[in-house]
Request: fold
Amino acid sequence: MDGKNLAVGSLVCGILSLVLIFFGYGALLGLILGIVAIVLAVNAKKKGFEDGMQKAGLVLGIIGTVLCGITFVACALCAGALAAMGASM
Reply:
């Protein structure tokens, strides 16, 4: 039963990481939650719980981590460009 709880946690963290993509610097929290989702899904598999929730949490965690990483870098670059443009005026 412990593996099921890990799978549910993985699924929740994966969903939250995908939701936080749309909030700019919230993508940093989404990046962290995506990594947590991956770790929880792997631990659930080690405990012997291989179900749809575990697989969905793993997939959502991977997708959330990649997309949040891209979004966070893009937001940081955009903020840096705006700051550089404001400093030159």
In short: The chain is about 85% helix and 0% strand. The CA atoms of residues 28 and 72 lie 6 Å apart. The longest helix spans residues 52-88.
